[in-house]
Amino acid sequence: CNKHEMTLVDDVKKLPLEFIPVQRAKRKSESLLENMALAARRGWQLLLSILAWKPYYVMKYHQQDMAELVSRLTSERRYDIVQFEMVHMADYIEYVQSGKTVWHEHDVAYRPAYRVFKKSKFFLKRFALFLEWCRWYRYESRMARRFDHVLCVTEQDVMLLRWLSGASLTVRTSTRWSG
Question: What's the rounded Cα separation, in Å, for the pair 177 and 11?
Answer without folding.
Answer: 29
